[in-house]
Amino acid sequence: MKRIAILIDLELSNKSGGHVKFWEKICESLMEDNLEIKIDIFFLGKVKKKRKFNNFINFKIKKPILSSKILRIVGIDADYTDLFPFNIFLFFELKKYDLIHTTDQLFSMSKTAKLASFIWKIPLTTSYHTDTSSYTKYYILKVFSYLPSPLSSFFIKKIKLHQKISENQKIKIQKYFNFCNKVMINFKSLSEDFSKIKRNKKIVNLERGINKEVFKKIKINKVNFYKKFNIPLENKILFFCGRVHELKGANFLAKIHKNLIEKGLPVTTILTGENIHGDECKKIGGQDLIITNYLNQNEVANLMNICDLFVFPSLYETGPQVVMEAKSCGALCVVSPKGGGRKISHNFDGIIINKYLVNEWVKVIYSLLKEKKKISKIKNNLQKYNTSPSWRDIFFNVFYKNWKEVLNS
After folding, report:
1. What is the pLDDT of residues 138-188, one digit of tens each?
2. CATH code given to domain 1-208+388-406
3. Read out DSSP for 179-194?
4. Distance (Å, whole) CA 111 – CA 169
5. Burial 48-66 (b: 16+ CB within 10 A, else e)
6. Domain ranges of the chain
7. Taking the chain, what is the end-to-end CA distance rounded to the nearest angstrom?
């Protein structure tokens, strides 16, 4: 039986982001399957351990050599990865596998995998899950904003260090793609972020799945629901799900909420997810802005079903999972082009707002909530044409099929 190593250079925890959850959901969808391969999935964690998921899948937790947690002191609050350039222990461990699959292209595990592939002559495939170069640009700007103005101005305005590092990362990612036997990437990300790479048999369109048993159109008792969250019955509900973080547009949404209130619209905005910038959002949004604790997926699905609009202003998404789930629940999504817009056809199954200006979003949302016919038309389209694949479909059609092709070549 062939053995495959999947390397996820991020910490496995309850607070893990979409990249980690992608693979957790795939594993959950395979719980009852009898696979023809053995899969070991490598995560980071505080303690080294091995966990059996089922007869064919194991989770291997590794301690990072140099955790990015150390960067918290300078305001970098991204998910933890390993910053050390090479992991010698992982290098030798990978020798026993028939195929290696990486889920990033820049950090310790992926660099180690590339060398292991070259030395041990093991096929290497990769998938693109996170717009790391855009995140890097954001965090460099944030770090340099703490410096004295002349110094910050020199590095950012004159040298444009943030842009240079971000572009350099894109070049490194492209070189990594060139080395691999197969590259799984969303075609929209490919055309917008890596336009120099031509589509060929090596490039596979990477989609995301949904749990169709949970994220579906259901009837919700509006009175009981509003009572649970102490929401006035006349209020419209805007819902956001994801990390409550500036990068995901949470602060931006808080400003939208404040402006809608000032325009006299009775609205409640609910944000749920890892609470990083929640206090700041509350300070901006004021009344009727609710930050929830973690909700299970059934509670999230309920909110997606009952909300008037699912508003997701994130600018950097390779495959906006929550937008797909919201659409499956019949929620009308309002998104940015390179965020949720990767999964939306404007005015058909959602709304894309091109200008990232609070006033523009307020104007569109305010008008939209008054247009019952337009909302009804889009919701009908969602019900008729939403055909998102399941997580099991994604595994077999995107990964398993192409791994078998590589292994048999």
Report:
1. 888 888 888 888 888 888 888 898 899 999 999 999 999 999 999 999 888
2. 3.40.50.2000
3. HSSEEEE-HHHHHHH-
4. 13
5. eeeeebeebbebbbbebee
6. 1-208+388-406, 220-383
7. 16
